[in-house]
Design goal:
single chain; Ribosomal Protein L22, Chain A; alpha+beta
């Protein structure tokens, strides 16, 4: 690795130490379906987001709920205190495409149809209202 690339990687790692996030890799659902769920909670206060995810009928909501609980726990661990009601909110959440498994399905007349089993990676950042206002 070149020196310039190494320095930028170290800066990025240092910046992540001051942020509170959780990642979920290789979720076996398509990124498009996961984005529908993530768009519902973007910018919400965490308790309201947990309620929204709990009563959502989407299958991906269970994975995002678990991820949100993990991000809250990471925030509590770094700050050494419990999160109060209305303090934390989902500052950023994004979904990236993961590896695609390519499979074949038998089709009529000796053909084979391609099946793409998609996966995704979800990254969720939580933050406090006061921290976000100071950055603006």
């Amino acid at each position: 690795m070149g020196k310039r690339k190494q320095l930028s990687a170290e800066k990025r790692k240092e910046a992540l130490k001051t942020q509170y996030f959780a990642k979920l890799n290789d979720v076996p659902s398509s990124p498009r379906k996961m984005r529908l769920v993530c768009d519902m909670i973007r910018g919400m206060e965490v308790n309201r987001a947990l309620g929204t995810l709990k009563f959502s009928t989407k299958a991906a909501a269970a994975d995002v709920e678990k991820l949100l609980r993990s991000a809250i726990a990471n925030w509590e661990q770094k700050n050494e205190r419990k999160a109060e009601t209305g303090e934390l909110f989902v500052s950023k959440i994004y979904v990236d495409g993961g590896a695609t498994l390519k499979r074949m399905r038998p089709a009529p007349q000796g053909r084979g149809y391609r099946i793409r089993k998609r996966s995704n990676h979800v990254t969720l950042f939580v933050d406090t209202k006061s921290t976000n206002e100071n950055q603006d």
